[in-house]
User: Fold ornithine carbamoyltransferase from Pisolithus tinctorius Marx 270.
Amino acid sequence: LADLTAPQILRIVNHAHYLKQVSVPWLAPQSKKSARLRMPSQSLFNKSIALLFAKRSTRTRVSAETAAVLLGGRALFLGREDIQLGVNETPRDTARVIGGMCQGIFARVGAHEEIEELARYSPVPVLNALSSLWHPTQTLADVLTLHEHAHLFDTALKTPPPANKPLPQLRPLTVAYVGDSTNVLHDMLVTYPRLGHKMRVASPEKPAYQCPQPVWDRVTQLGCDKDIWWGSDPKEAVKGADVVVTDTWISMGQEAEKAQRLQDFAGYQVTEALCRDANPDWKFLHCLPRKQEEVDDQVFYGPRSLVFPESDNRKWTIMAAFDLLFGKWDLAGEKTLK
Ligand code: CP
Ligand code: NVA
Assistant:
């Protein structure tokens, strides 16, 4: 998301809201007159999107496959065991070959450099489905979820947004993140401050849990750092927070470090007690999959938790990104996001 402007990010999120309304008829009952117009764009008709996934996925994969169907196209799931990449073929050659047959690549990779290389050599757009440094489509879903629940943060807005209406504005929020400096956090850091929100982060003091330099460079280039407080005390981080967010302490590929990480993150579990000094109406977000060590059941399954609307919104935001970046690319190129 660091590659997009704030208006471009909001353009995708608002488009996701529109696509959700027109794809789920009971959310926005359609009049007979408007029914033909109010259908999702079929911008992927006769098109194929390659899902190049080197890691596991439930939400991102299912979102992508089902969204492609609604846009009139198809997605090809290409897992690590399925294709030649990484065994018999380089990312450069793979990008050129797949890009010659498909109209977009949605890639989940290990090291971030791998997706940079795919993007460099692909003749079609490449969208990040998660890398070591970034998880942009997760933040898109989180922003949509917060806008849909704007009434929970603002007493002037008494009800959820009515169907057929644009998304409501969000009042400036304080978003706290406690846990590891993961790909999920990094996209939050380059997004929330540009949308007018403040961030408060706590991660353990060890260098391994601090923000990687390439990410912090983007944060400062975008001027986001002035709205970010970063410390190591989770209680301090959640002070005054409207939203509390965490992610797993053991990301995919870090399984061997589990014992050490459980020790280092002691005291970081999100609970009612930890968040005593947050805004009394604080809400909870988590990208999932969730483990109990980072958030207890009371919070995760309780009324503060927006985690399942958040996971539903993975689909609509990925659909919006596919429509604008893949579906309409050859019609208007990058201009579809302006
Ligand atoms: N949140 C998320 O990316 O989930 P998956 O790994 O299941 O896709
Ligand atoms: N930080 C986690 C996110 C999973 C969606 C990981 O990279 O495994």
